[in-house]
Design goal:
By secondary structure, the chain is mainly α. It has one domain. Helices cover 72% and strands 1% of the residues. The protein has helices at 10-36, 59-77, 86-104, 112-117, 124-130, 133-138, 140-144, 149-152, 157-166, 172-184, 186-198, 201-212, 215-219, 228-245, 248-264, 272-284, 290-315, 319-336, 341-356, 358-372, 378-382, 385-402, 410-413, 415-431, 436-455, and strands at 42-44, 49-51. It has a two-stranded antiparallel sheet with strand order 1-2. Helix 2 (59-77) packs antiparallel against helix 25 (436-455) and helix 22 (385-402) runs antiparallel to helix 24. It is globular.
Length: 461
């Protein structure tokens, strides 16, 4: 068993973190200025994809941003915030985030209902109207072969959510807001994950806040990719629970949840690199014996296979075959759309980091640098939870980019990964004294979200 991780020497690194915050804020303001002037072009038409502008800048957009931001700023500046229970704080912030989402729709080019029902923006609603759920599962590859683009290139979980929501409401406007609400629940899971990993409720609250104000997520509501982080964070919480308890039942739950994740969207399986880093950390710190971990990792796999076979026997849906067909379709689409690997391998990370937010990226780099330049061995530094998260998500980013499945549109497709990039920024904001840091990050993120939502055609009906 290795020694305990080296503590994060915050006070000695205040200047670095504050410098990163100022740099990130400056870049964020510059990015917002470029959006306002319509000078920032995300993607390239010659490489098969770009996001066009839908509206010209108006100062009314800034007024709406200020109105949307008011409840959040009031909560951040409230002197009684430290005395509140965690549950109360989370509910207040959930309400503040909901207010922002409602207000931002007033300046968006399209309503949530229009985006949900449009085959061009999200074809799952229309596809669900055309096909019974039993037919989709029993003959998934065949019935999706002629489906609209989004339904054709995804696993059945997304259209399955539409069927589920139809049991609650048949009104597409209400259904769209239910999807927004489901996406927002990811903030509660983010809180649980960060609190379990860092044992720091302030950092956990800030991580939940940054999840709710994460630009890429706000850009794409109510598109199904905004639901994916909820499933990924759910699996992450189950992982930490298993590593803490060492119970086979918890490992089995993770296996079953992993099937649900693949059933909804398989790409986030790459987050397994972060999960592996967290598992290695737990083993190195003696939280779970290596032999027990190995045995229970097999239990995860066995449960995954058992659930897959049970679903196949009950419905006819074959996960592995369907997954292989989805990968083949994605590769064919890249060729038909003329999206060259070399161009997008360089462009994808830049667009992804735009969606993460400039302040978050700057604080991510500063926190990782601070921990890795601290005292102790490299192994001890990597055992610090923020270093584990940083190293793990960077590995995920590199791998998911180099495999070349996604060429363009990564602001949407990698929303699940961007959520984890918010965590180091939350840790930095929580370790700096006062609330200036979190106010700055929230203000910059929400301004970028407001201008992007109003002006750029991230989702076009």
């Amino acid at each position: 068993m290795t020694q305990a991780p080296v503590p994060f020497a915050v006070r000695r690194e205040d200047r670095v973190l504050r410098g990163a915050l100022l740099a990130g804020a400056a870049v964020s303001v510059a990015v917002c200025g470029l959006i306002a002037a319509q000078w920032l072009i995300l993607g390239a038409s010659r490489a098969g994809w770009y996001y066009g502008y839908q509206q010209r800048f108006g100062w009314g957009f800034v007024a709406v941003w200020l109105l949307a931001l008011l409840p959040g700023v009031a909560l951040l500046l409230d002197a009684r915030a430290a005395q509140r229970r965690a549950g109360v704080s989370l509910l207040l912030w959930l309400a503040a985030a909901g207010w922002m989402q409602v207000v931002l729709r007033s300046i968006a080019p399209y309503t949530l209902e229009t985006l949900l029902t449009s085959d061009g923006a999200s074809s799952f609603y229309g596809f669900a109207k055309q096909q019974p759920w039993s037919e989709v599962l029993a003959h998934f590859v065949r019935v999706t072969r002629t489906a609209p683009l989004h339904a054709q290139g995804n696993m059945p979980g997304k259209v399955g959510l539409i069927y589920l929501l139809q049991g609650l409401t048949t009104r597409p406007d209400s259904m769209a807001w239910l999807i927004v609400a489901l996406s927002s629940l990811g903030g509660l899971l983010m809180y649980r994950f960060v609190d379990a990993l860092f044992a720091d409720r302030r950092a956990a609250l800030y991580a939940a806040i940054l999840y709710w104000f994460y630009p890429a997520r706000l850009f794409f509501l109510p598109i199904m990719n905004t639901i994916t982080p909820v499933l990924v964070l759910g699996c992450a919480c189950l992982l930490l629970r298993w590593l803490r308890t060492g119970r086979t039942a918890d490992a089995a739950l993770l296996g079953a949840a992993s099937y649900g994740l693949v059933f909804f969207e398989p790409l986030p399986l790459v987050i397994g690199l972060l999960f592996a880093a967290l598992a290695l950390r737990a083993i190195a710190l003696g939280a779970i014996p290596p032999q027990r971990f190995a045995f229970q990792a097999i239990a995860v796999l066995v449960t995954f296979i058992a659930v897959s076979e049970a679903v196949r026997a009950a419905t006819g849906f074959e996960l592995v075959y369907s997954l292989s067909q989805m990968i083949a379709r994605a590769s064919a689409f890249n060729e038909v759309a003329a999206r060259p690997y070399g161009f997008w391998a360089l462009e994808n990370p830049a667009e992804f980091l735009f969606g993460v937010g400039a302040c978050q990226v700057a604080l991510f780099a500063a926190v990782f640098r601070s921990v890795m330049r601290g005292p102790g061995s490299v192994r001890q530094r990597l055992a610090h939870p923020v270093a584990t998260v940083c190293a793990g998500v960077l590995a995920v980013l590199i791998v998911v980019d180099l495999i070349g499945i996604n060429r363009g549109e990564t602001i949407r497709l990698w929303i699940f990964l961007g959520c984890f990039f918010q965590i180091p920024a939350a840790v930095a904001c929580a370790t700096l004294p006062g609330r200036t840091a979190i106010v700055t990050v929230v203000a910059c993120s929400s301004l970028q979200a407001a201008l992007g939502t109003a002006m750029i055609g991230f989702v076009v009906a």
